[in-house]
Amino acid sequence: MNKKAAVLAYPNSNNLGDYIQSIAAKQLLREEEVVELDRDNLDSYSGDPIKLVMNGWFMEAPSHWPPSEQIQPLFISFHLNPTVQNRMLTEKGIAYLKRHQPIGCRDLHTQALLKSKGIQTFFSGCLTLSLKRTAFVSPKKIRKGIVVISPLERLLPEPQTFRLNTTNGLFNILIQTLRFPIRYIQYKRAMSHLKAFLVFQKEEVIWCSQLIDRKRFSEKERIIAATKQLEKLANASLVITSRIHSALPAVAFETPVLFLSDGLEHPNQKSRLEGMNSFFPILTSRELETWNAQKVVAKKAHLPYVKKVQEEIKAFFKD
Predict the structure, then answer these.
(1) Would the pTM of this model clear 0.85, i.e. be above it?
(2) Taking CA 137 as the corner, what is the angle to CA 135 and CA 139, rounded to the nearest 5 degrees?
(3) I need a surface site. Which of 13, 56, 144, 219 has the fewest CB within 10 A?
(4) Which helix (H) or strand (E) covers residue 289, if one does?
């Protein structure tokens, strides 16, 4: 390999899902030495020429787009969110993507958006669909327990919703403040539906979060926590979540999943789910009444996309 291999890093993230994506990328590379580059500062890279697996959500800091010319990217499992698409799909941004097309898109929204700009694409799904259960649990380990990860959190505004910045103005902060009491009632009602469903299940219920306090835990500790989260997903008999990067690794492990979509109606969130219903059922908390845990089965629709991703990465790093 002439150029070093690199994956994205998230030194300032409080979301275990980010670290899970990096773990998946490293598993696919199978290289002893893998460089980690901060996703939100790719334009500042000035080291030796490097090959980077460019997956995940772009970009929390769109002013840092496009990346350094020292980086040769493989766009795979790429998500472009409506919140930043206008600032990233400038004439310069579109030209950059065209230089590195075709772009493997994580969701159908991103694929349609890039196609509308004349960029060649294909639907790749997410790198986390390639995770191997045997890397986190013995293959003979009997599945047990219902793991509930960060359910319905999107019904409640995140702290940054009330912070003034370039993407969040005073008007939006006012609207979110006025909406909070209604959203909180919706959250409590949705949680009551979920708990009513769990009452009738015979297995132990394990509650955990996909979010972690980045001020209390170092980046290394957050990566360890992400690995432990994957172990829970690999051991579970059922996963219930409202987080994509808890649901998709469970699919990879052939762990049955129920994805709760309450609070994900806004285009900024809904865009991320386009195409995901082929991997796991997407339903509201109220619709849990019609489900029985015994009826939830793991799908294998992800396997052709995993094969495609593996082929793309192998070809990219062949030279």
Answers:
(1) yes
(2) 95
(3) 144
(4) none
